[in-house]
Amino acid sequence: MTNHAPAPALLAKAETLVEALPYLQRYAGATFVVKYGGHAMGSPELQRDFAEDVVLLKAVGINPVVVHGGGPQIGAMLKRLGVESRFVDGLRVTDAETAQIAEMVLAGSINKEIVGWIGQAGGRAVGLSGKDAGFVTAEKVGRSTPDKLQGIERHVDLGFVGEPVGVDRRIIDTLSAADIIPVIAPIAIGADGHTYNINADTMAGAIAAALGAKRFFLLTDVAGVLDKQGELLTDLDPAAIAELRADGTISGGMIPKLETCVAAVEAGVDAAVILDGRVPHAMLLEIFTRQGAGTLVHR
Ligand SMILES: Nc1ncnc2c1ncn2[C@@H]1O[C@H](COP(=O)(O)OP(=O)(O)O)[C@@H](O)[C@H]1O
Ligand SMILES: CC(=O)N[C@@H](CCC(=O)OP(=O)(O)O)C(=O)O
To answer: Where in the cell does this protein reside (predicted)?
Structure first.
């Protein structure tokens, strides 16, 4: 008798597709905001995997909206130009020259590279910054940090660092409806006419909230949020995050990342997930399989 059963490896592929079925049904028509961090833009292979994942989401009826960073790339350019960089709580102190360079790197080169990768993967993307169609309005950020020597709060002027105070979703809706994937650089203009450099996590969170995104993914270069022993914390709510901040478990770039996740879920985004962008197809594994990855932030 002939054995008609497919080879086990082939059968496993079919099972993976079947496992994805309930997720495909659940997410059809939903908006997912994907924050692609500068540290996650590793090798050309990882960039290709990322673009394929985004194009696949679009192909199965999800509306992906990409917001990208580029902190390390801005740092490299500033170094080449002999300009010094300083960070306060994960935010780059930005003078007029730095703002110009940040815009050049983010909205000029990285934005178009990502648009290109998505095109190579068979999708159609349009790159824009918050300035285009005036869709994001920014306001200058102030920052108070504890002065360790004197035990007092000290106000730090971060220069042209902004935060989004208004998001007009019409341009994003128009692009998504035309089957075009928006790719957004974290730069916007203020009511004062200045160009503001916005932390990419903050920009992505504001856009996720304005779009009422079902999921908000933040791809970075760590497995997720780690505790003091270096173990992955798989599940966090706003109260747990406040504790981690107070006891110093989270620092640097993880601070705006988690602040953003909290703001997004409090504004109605179902869940935010911090994912390891160094893992090939991390996003697909998170969305379409039973094994969650990274750190889930929920209300
Ligand atoms: N508790 C923590 N768990 C994980 N990462 C942390 C933690 N505290 C600080 N970090 C830092 O946050 C970084 C991620 O933020 P960031 O450098 O801004 O990434 P991205 O460029 O992807 O936005 C990690 O690489 C790590 O150095
Ligand atoms: C104000 C501020 O800090 N802006 C960031 C914008 C880029 C960014 O956030 O990139 P990542 O997501 O790769 O860190 C910066 O100048 O680095």
So the answer is: Cytoplasm
Whether 18 maps to a domain, the answer reads: no
**pTM of the full predicted structure?**
0.92
Residue 255's CATH number:
3.40.1160.10
Nearest CA to ligand 2 atom 14: 71
124: in domain: yes
- What secondary structure does DSSP assign to 207-232, as a single string? HHHHHT-SEEEEEESSSSEE-TTS-E
Question: What is the rounded distance in angstroms from the CA atom of residue 218 to the CA atom of residue 123?
Answer: 21
203-256 pLDDT per residue, tens: 999 999 999 999 999 999 999 999 999 999 999 999 999 999 999 999 988 988
Ligand 1 near 16 CB (within 6 A) = no
* Residue with tokens 């993880």, as numbered in its chain: 254
Task: Report how far ligand 1's centroid is from the alpha carbon of 174 (Å).
Answer: 34
What is the number of structural domains in the chain? 1
Atom of ligand 1 nearest to the CA of 40: 22
| Domain-located, residue 10 | no
Distance 2 CA to ligand 2 centre (A): 60
Query: Which ligand is located closest to the Cα atom of residue 222?
Result: 1
Which of ligand 2's atoms lies nearest the C-alpha of 72? 13
Query: Given a cut of 90, is residue 90 above it in pLDDT?
Result: no
Ligand number with the minimum distance to the CA of 38: 2
252: in domain: yes
143 class by beta-carbon count within 10 Å (0-12 exposed, 13-18 middle, 19+ buried) = middle
Structural domain boundaries, residue 39: 30-297
Reported confidence tier of residue 163, pLDDT bands at 50, 70, 90: very high
